[in-house]
Amino acid sequence: MFLPQRNLGLFYVNYLFDFMPTKKTNTTNQQKPTALQFIRTIYLSIAAIIGLIMFVIGTAGAVRLVFNTYIFQVNDYQFYSPYDTVCQQPKFTSPDGKVTTPRTNEEIADCEAKLKESNERLSDNQTKRDLAQSISLGVVGLPVWIFHWLVMQADWKRRKEVA
């Protein structure tokens, strides 16, 4: 069966139809596709695509992380402290809101130093989480893609030899 090729990157849609799994009937030499073999082909194709997508997303995340951290040296500390004025707020406010105890300059400087240290720690932890996620996507996605792609290629060669 001839269908126009639609390029999906690494394989063609006509793979599913030109080399669709077939079963020879006893009465003729024509081959008839079986549903289970067709489902297997669809499963292998989808699993290979999912594995490849996981690998690409993981690799892209790791590259982005390297660029942001080491090449462009992006500081995202502001992201972790939405309350920049927290150190300027009074140390104590009475329940009725009338009596306030302001912070001293020493306390404000100490509070800002602790806030900066906390933001740096949170940023470092987020970088580590992003790196772990990117590596795990790549490490899981690559074998999934390779395994299903190789099985699919072996089936394709076997069907081509039979036909």
Give the SSE map:
Elements: H1 14-18, E1 22-24, E2 31-33, H2 35-71, H3 77-80, E3 92-93, E4 100-101, H4 105-162
Antiparallel strand pairs: 1-2, 3-4
Helix pairs in contact: 2-4
Quickly describe the structure.
This protein is mainly α and 163 residues long.
Gyration radius (Cα, Å) is 30 Å
Order of helices and strands: HEEHHEEH
* Overall number of domains: 1
* Low-confidence blocks of residues: 1-21
List how many beta strands DSSP finds: 4
The biggest beta sheet is recorded as:
2 strands, antiparallel
Strand content range: 5-15%
- The strands making up the biggest β-sheet line up spatially as 1-2
Q: Give the N-to-C terminal Cα separation.
A: 12 Å
Shape category: elongated
Descriptive account of the structure:
With 163 residues, the protein is mainly α. It has one domain. It contains four helices and four strands. It has a two-stranded antiparallel ribbon. The chain has a two-stranded antiparallel sheet with strand order 3-4. A hairpin with a 6-residue loop joins strand 3 (92-93) and strand 4 (100-101). It is elongated and about 90 Å long. The model is unreliable at 1-21 (pLDDT under 50).
